[in-house]
Amino acid sequence: MENIRLILQVIVALGILNVWLLRYGKNTPYRGGKAPNLRKEFATYGLPFPVMCLVGVTKVGLAVALLVGIWFPVLVQPAAIGMAVLMLGAFGMHLKVSDPFAKAVPSLMVLAMCLGIVFL
Q1: How far apart are CA 96 and CA 111, in angstroms?
Q2: Of 32, 33, 71, 83, whose CB is crowded by the most CB atoms within 10 A?
Q3: DSSP-based helix, strand, coil % in the chain, nearest 5
Q4: pTM for the whole structure
């Protein structure tokens, strides 16, 4: 079970870092509404730029905590719980703008992996 938890930690962390650091300004099929980038996606949800910055810093920080948690396990549970809460929020935003279910799948998958990290 420990190996599964570690694998999930790495998948979640690298996935979040990919979205927020490498794909921030790029179009993906999972962006809310018809947004071409992350900033416009948050605008689509009706959220101001400072909220996007807060969410981004929090997600990147939690992703780093999941990676550092490989060596300092005390960080893993709080980071996974925090990320799960943010993924619930992401799913809620997709519902708010009536996105097709397929656009919300990544948030639900990350939520499921975070729950796996917490409960395994």
Answers
A1: 18
A2: 83
A3: 75, 0, 25
A4: 0.95
